[in-house]
Design brief:
Elements (H helix, E strand, L loop, with lengths): L22 E3 L10 H9 L12 H11 L6 E5 H13 L5 E4 L6 H8 L3 E4 L1 E2 L5 E2 L9 E7 L11 H10 L3 E5 L16 E6 L11 E5 L2 H10 L7 H11 L2 H22 L4 E3 L5 E5 L4 H7 L2 E5 L8 E5 L3 H15 L1
Parallel strand pairs: 1-13, 3-4, 3-7, 7-8, 8-9
Antiparallel strand pairs: 2-10, 5-6, 9-10, 11-12, 12-14, 13-14
Length: 335
């Protein structure tokens, strides 16, 4: 092993439930699932003995139509995780610095440690807004990563603060937009900013691990060299294409989730410090062990100590009936 390497295990948001009757509000999944057309496309593929076409041209064209990005700058990846791993391969080495803004997605820190890099943490105020990130950029800063909307806080990051980092860094800026379909704003394209997205959340294809990225021209050659040769299967590609051909399904799911997000927020803020969200989940501060008490009642939520937030909880917005049960059980416990 590399002498500089440091290990930290990623802990997923889902617990192993002993009963299928558990309501899982811990993993930020789309509770309505993918478009029926995506399911049909996935099931129709039978050439499992053949490798995928690594060009993924039809999927890229659909992404162009969906995002407005340039075809040449789009890369298909094995989820956002795969995009991040590829970026770390070509951008970060031993002794480099990686700027992150905790609390945020823990895999950023894990990848930095595996790359033998030094993690530099940006500050936030009491409402988790970014503070003066650009002042932390040095000659050793090779990568800065921002999640917007941020996991676990749920809020869009300050675009001007990210732009300020991009203007001074001698390296790569990554904006992770896993939850962007639930928000009202998207980060604009910049020459040294890589935007990464996924079909796991709003499109309901989490199990297929389909991601994509907008790669500026200056990084295209390096990214293509570092990316895995066949990042997704043809079956997954066909499902993603079908999902993009049925945007009405995705938008209807998002509309229901956003409507129920507002109801859940108004309920939670009566009892807890709760943060407004631009994603499909809410963050609130509760009592110690609340997640364990709810699990005993058959409801799973995410305890956030792994994010550095003890006694904070992240709850996914589920189906209307799941949300109703969660709120009723929680209200009963509090009374």
């Amino acid at each position: 092993m590399k002498s500089c390497i440091s290990f930290e295990e990623y802990v997923p948001g889902i617990a192993i439930a002993k009963s299928k009757n558990f309501i899982n509000l811990a993993s930020n999944e789309n509770p309505y699932g993918p478009s029926p057309k995506a399911l049909e496309a996935f099931r129709s593929f039978s050439d499992l003995h053949k490798y995928p076409d690594p060009r993924y041209e039809e999927l890229k064209q659909r992404i162009v139509e969906y995002t407005g990005w340039n075809f040449e700058e789009i890369a298909i990846t094995s989820g956002i995780d795969g995009a991040l791993e590829t970026i770390f391969r070509f951008a970060v080495g031993e002794g480099d610095e990686v700027l992150i803004a905790p609390p945020t997605f823990s895999y950023y820190r894990i990848l930095a440690k595996l790359s033998c890099a030094r993690v530099v943490e940006a500050g936030r105020d009491e409402d988790f807004r970014l503070k003066n990130c650009h002042e932390l950029v040095t000659k050793k800063t090779k990568l800065a990563i921002f999640c917007s909307p941020n996991n676990p806080t749920g809020k869009l990051e300050d675009f001007e603060e990210i732009k300020a980092v991009a203007e001074v860094i001698n390296g790569v800026v990554v904006v992770d937009e896993a939850y962007v379909e639930f928000a009202e704003k998207r980060f604009p394209c910049m020459d040294n900013v890589i935007i990464v997205r996924t079909f796991s959340k709003a499109f309901g294809l989490a199990n297929l691990r389909v991601g994509y990225a907008r790669i500026p021209q200056i990084y295209l050659k390096a990214f293509k060299s570092a990316n895995t040769p066949f990042p997704i299967s043809t079956a997954a590609e066909k499902a993603a294409i079908a999902a993009l051909n049925d945007l009405e399904w995705m938008k209807s799911c998002v509309d229901k989730i956003k409507k129920d997000r507002e109801k859940m927020y108004n309920f939670l803020k009566k009892y807890f410090k709760t943060y407004p969200s631009d994603a499909n989940f809410l963050l609130f501060k509760g009592g110690k062990g609340l997640h364990e008490t709810l699990a005993e009642k058959g409801i799973l939520i995410r305890e956030c100590s792994q994010f550095g937030l003890p006694n904070y909880y992240r709850v996914t917005v589920g189906k209307e009936e799941e949300n109703r049960v969660f709120m009723e059980v929680l209200e009963c416990l509090l009374q």
